[in-house]
Design a protein that fits this description.
Chain B: The chain crosses the membrane at residues 6-26. Chain B: It comes from Mesorhizobium opportunistum. Chain B: Keywords: Membrane, Transmembrane, Transmembrane helix. The complex is a heterodimer of chains A (762) and B (53). Chain A is α+β, with helices and mostly antiparallel strands and 762 residues long. Chain A contains 27 helices and 28 strands. Chain B is an all-alpha fold and 53 residues long. Chain B has a domain at 15-39. Classes of the chains: A alpha+beta (762), B mainly alpha (53).
Amino acid sequence: MSCCAPGAEMALDLNGATSVLPSSQEIRLASRSLGDDLRQTDLSVPTVHCAACIQTIEAALGKLDHVESARVNLSTKRVAVRWRGDEVPPFVAALGRLGYEAHLFAPEIDDKDKTLAELIRAVAVAGFAAGNIMLLSVSVWSGAEGATRDLFHWVSALIAIPALAFAGGIFFRSAWNALRHGRMNMDVPIAVGVSLAYAMSLYETINHGDHAYFDASVSLLFFLLIGRTLDHVMRERARTAVKGLSQLAARGAMVLRGDGARDYLPVGEIEPGMRLLIAAGERIPVDGKIIQGTSDLDCSLASGESTPKNVAPGEAVQAGVLNLTGPLTIEATAAAKDSFLAEMVRLMEAAEGGRAQYRRIADRVSALYAPVVHLTAFVTFLGWIAATGDWHRAMTIAIAVLIITCPCALGLAVPIVQVVAARRLFENGIMVKDGSAMERLASVDIAVFDKTGTLTLGQPRLVNAPSIDPAMLTVAADLAAHSRHPFSKAIAGFAIPGGQLKFDAVTEHPGFGIEATDAASTWRLGRRGWAGWKARTGGEGKHGYGGTVLTRNGMIAACFVFEDALRADARAAIDQLSDAGVPVEMLSGDTAVACAEVAKSLGIDDFVPCLLPSGKLERIETLAKVGHKVLMVGDGLNDTPALSAAHVSIAPATAADVGRNAADFVFLRESLVAVPLALDVSRKAGSLIRQNIAIAIVYNAVAVPIAILGHVTPLIAAIAMSASSLLVIGNALRLRTAEPISQAKNVRRDRLSDFNELARSS
Amino acid sequence: MTTLTYLIPVALFLGALGLGGFLWALKSGQYEDLDGAAERILIDPEEKKRPLI
């Protein structure tokens, strides 16, 4: 069908067990009314990547009943579906059949990006004005005189007005904001320089003067706006990529009323005492108590425990855990705002401290720079008045000083490096939230890792496959394909394609295992005590994971041993971090035994097991108090407070939603090498930023004396400013060509497979 | 000098036309899916069948 279907199908396979299709009630909840019975639903479809995909999806969705239109946006990898009526058309299922996995967007984030549109418009206006004024200025520089020169100056003045009002407005507002709060930022000298240059040029024009700086003030705006727009585009891209990952928190739940009616309510409206139906594959929306049903719960995201937990009626369940095998009826014991998830958010907000105190390099430099520049201009003014008594001359030269020191290069020095660095990380599947994150990462001196889901994948791996009778393994794999239990998924991976055995009936016993019968015998795959009811070794086996066995008529035919699979390159990543001078520590909510095993195989000396979320937070705060700059890498709900308390934080794409939002970096690929890579790029970016600031300062040291002595003409100002900006940009681009770091050589191929990974990560 | 009185307005008008065109394209959403626009050129419109000669 389409070129990408095979890969997409695979992604769907991998996901099938953990993510359940959003129900139609959920889709309705997340859709947005366009008035007149028309509704729009935005879906993220990470695997779409070519013309054939677009056509397949749009044609298939357009054919569904009640669907008004479907439009694919390839850049953001989203589909906007407009539909009518009460029934939600089955578009997620339709996409699933085509091999595209789709997930829902939260309704509030699909607003158009107004800031970006404003920035691009400002760049366009400033570019137009700068080009035309420069054209007129060149004529003046090459000898236009008298009335012609005045005409050109007047025309320039007119063109500059809309540019200043529209494009300059961004800087004026920001500068005003900073001043009003008693702060200094880079926009203050820009705003002062640009507006004074314009005022003086206008005065010169009216009095038939020689020199007008219209070109300088407008092209300055143009350069700075380019830097600012690039910066914004980069951040926006990271943001949409992260938002495009599937939502892991429950959006709503099916409520069972006293009279037997069923209602789908958003999480916020669920009250304590309500009875909720949780199907297998759904996440528990609020804290509750099980009333009916047995099942296995995957708590890895909530508590960091790697082994699924067996639950029966009467037991309490936490919001955020995944119900794996059987349907459950629970009674809500807390509203969403008092649930575990909300508790984590509160801890997280309370923890936000160290990061808010961080001041960006650019702000620190400008806090020094602006007063010095303004003082220099003022002293120049006084000096020339004292020397010559000529007000007009003194004013002209003082403004020339302001223009030449206007931080064009300085304004570009930091953002341009960060844009290039973020681009580099993006190509390696790492999203950066903003520039300050890179500055903070460059300064870390200790790294703290979570275990389950971060150092490990949180998915068990079958370790004794070679020692199992291949025939028995095939039977087990066929049986396991019927369950979404993590152990079953691990066994199902060993299925032989096409080798399906004929079972008459397959039933899953939640909390125990799977039973199937064929002509001759009854097969059971599951817990030792249940499956091997005739075996002599009844009860739990000696293996750590409760002992999973395959039995034939009650006799054990094969034993399975699992371990939590390590994330790819975990060992290499830890080693690289140690080489970079960043010692590694592991914090986990899992048992000491499980932690010790992982720590040993990864060569981590320091680890703390059995931690509560607040325990992790405390550990990070203790480290910070001693003066450490802590990097936290984690994925679970229980890591979220720690993620936001740390100096800088990184989360994998598989992390809980809150965690992904709290983290400064999100990496999409499985490999943990992303962490040292991000550190390396950030450190390189840090040194380039310092070089760029040095270049800008050297430029000023040379240009300012010339300006103070009154030798600066508009031509010299234009050349000097452009040259310094180009120098800074050129220096920043060196980061792109820096020698590839380990996996970077496969960038081209990896970029193509990013889509699959985006999908897989859900 | 006389040529300038009409050449400059003409130049500015043409420039403004380009700027206006860009702003219009931006507003009408033509920059929202640049990758998609590049790929969509490969999709044949379905209903139009080539007449047999």
